[in-house]
Amino acid sequence: MKIKVGVSNRHVHLKQSDLDILFGCSLEKDFNLNQPNNFASKNYVTIKTKKNQIDKVRVLGEIRSYTQVEISKTDAYKLGINPPIKNTGDLVGSGNVDIIGPIGQINVDACIIANRHIHISTEDKLKYNLPDKVRIKINGSKGGIIDNVYLKESPNAYFELHLDTDDANAFLIKSDDEVDIID
């Protein structure tokens, strides 16, 4: 079964109270993402730790019920932290970072490396009879198998594999490439 890839760079999701502290205004949409109601905003923050910082980290909308920072392992090395690999929204034991906006700053235990995951609608999950975790086969000059790809089910999801930049670079794949679900 073929599926399109979406490569996810470092980004931040914000809850309303943190957005107010950092920006004092609503998010300004830059462009829509494939997942319904999700968009890349024109708003950026800095992620900072005691060791280092990363500037111009995009904030993604829509507003969430939690604040979360998603980075790659390469970013984690630069920042000198060791955040856990987690599913979105699971922030127990996550890494501590400062998020700096144009008018304010917050300190949060909200930094993770996101699990590889496939967005799938409830209807498609039933239709294709897929388990909660699958393997992906990537073709090409640096092809291979990716294990532990979780299915993230929601009613109206756009069927898409999300990988972070480290995974995508390791296999020389980019957004809109197609890969195969093999089990």
Structural write-up:
The chain has four helices and 14 strands. By secondary structure, it is mainly beta. The mean pLDDT is 97. 15% of the residues lie in helices and 49% in strands. A hairpin with a 4-residue loop joins strand 4 and strand 5 (53-64). It has a six-stranded mixed β-barrel.
In short:
The protein has 183 residues and is mainly beta. It has four helices and 14 strands.
List the helices and strands and how they pair.
Layout lengths: L1 E7 L2 E5 H7 L6 E4 L6 E10 L4 E12 L3 E3 L2 H7 L5 E2 L8 E6 L4 E10 L2 E5 H7 L4 E6 L5 E11 L5 E5 H6 L7 E4 L2
Parallel strand pairs: 1-13, 2-5, 6-9, 7-9, 10-12
Antiparallel strand pairs: 1-14, 2-6, 3-4, 4-5, 4-8, 8-9, 10-13, 11-12, 11-14
